[in-house]
């Protein structure tokens, strides 16, 4: 069995966010980059667990990005991937990225493709569905549990007010979220071994870019705290009626 895990590079959650070029581009200078947590903690770690249970599984990683993505790819390899593929391209829009992943996946004939449910920067939650559509494969989103039963997957996913259990044949595309696995930290053996694991560079295939950023806007600054004297409940009531609704 062959598993492909899609990983992306995102800003650290503590990074200071700013925009350039008339608010049309993210200002990347000085930003600390990490593996998108949904890709790392849930998609990748669950794939590693499957490989640990069945050593015959081959686990590959894919990233669409430039050479500055390679540190996060090496970290993913240190966690447990067998080899990685970097599609040498700027990240354009979701469709473009999905097209690159689908081209590699089609060539590699993977049985299972894992993605995180979304990236923590753009929160698009669209890559998995697009990859599945381009490959004409079934797709299950927001998975919190995943088990293999021969050539069939048993997937538990969150729905409004509860959970849903799906059965689907392989090959299959699944997006993963909290509950799928527990975060791991690379050990020294994994870090040293990652230096020699294959990292292949693939050139991008032709694909349309269907969206472009018109502008970014920062959220409004938080309003200051207002203290109301306990002897003045009428003022508290007024604030709740007139100002709290606008927050």
CATH superfamily: HUPs
Mean pLDDT: 92
**CATH C-level class:** Alpha Beta
Class from secondary-structure proportions: alpha/beta
How does the SSE layout of this entry go?
Elements: E1 2-6, E2 9-11, E3 19-20, E4 25-26, E5 33-35, H1 37-53, E6 58-65, H2 70-79, E7 83-88, H3 94-108, E8 112-116, H4 127-135, E9 139-149, E10 152-159, E11 162-169, E12 172-176, H5 188-194, E13 199-202, H6 233-242
Parallel strand pairs: 1-6, 1-8, 6-7, 7-13, 8-12, 9-12
Antiparallel strand pairs: 2-5, 3-4, 9-10, 10-11
Helix pairs in contact: 2-5, 3-4
Summarize the structure.
With 247 residues, this protein is of the alpha/beta class.
Description:
The chain is α/β, with parallel strands linked by helices. Helix content is 28%, strand content 28%. The protein has a 9-stranded mixed sheet with strand order 11-10-9-12-8-1-6-7-13, sandwiched between helices. Strands 2-5 form a two-stranded antiparallel ribbon. Strand 3 (19-20) and strand 4 form a beta hairpin. Helix 2 crosses helix 5 and helix 3 (94-108) crosses helix 4.
Keywords:
two-stranded antiparallel ribbon; single chain; Rossmann fold
């Amino acid at each position: 069995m062959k598993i492909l895990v899609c990983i992306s590079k995102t800003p650290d959650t503590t990074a200071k966010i700013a925009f350039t070029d008339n608010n049309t581009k993210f200002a990347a200078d000085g930003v600390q980059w990490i593996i998108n947590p949904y890709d790392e903690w849930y998609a990748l770690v669950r794939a590693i667990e499957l490989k640990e249970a069945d050593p015959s599984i081959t686990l590959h990683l894919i990233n669409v990005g430039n050479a500055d993505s390679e540190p996060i790819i090496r970290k993913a390899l240190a966690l447990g991937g067998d080899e990685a593929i970097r599609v040498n391209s700027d990240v354009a829009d979701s469709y473009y990225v999905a097209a690159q992943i689908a081209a590699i996946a089609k060539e590699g004939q993977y049985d299972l493709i894992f993605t995180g449910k979304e990236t923590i920067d753009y929160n698009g939650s669209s890559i998995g569905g697009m990859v599945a559509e381009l490959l004409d494969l079934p797709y299950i989103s927001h998975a919190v549990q995943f088990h293999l039963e021969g050539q069939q997957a048993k997937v538990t996913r969150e729905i409004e007010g509860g959970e849903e259990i799906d059965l689907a044949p392989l090959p299959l595309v699944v997006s993963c979220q909290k509950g799928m696995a527990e975060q791991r930290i690379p050990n020294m053996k994994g870090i040293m071994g990652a230096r020699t694991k294959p990292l292949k560079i693939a050139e991008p295939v032709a694909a349309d870019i269907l969206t472009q950023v018109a502008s970014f806007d920062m959220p409004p600054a938080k309003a200051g705290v207002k203290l109301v004297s306990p002897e003045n409940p009428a003022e508290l009531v007024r604030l709740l009626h007139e100002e709290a609704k606008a927050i």
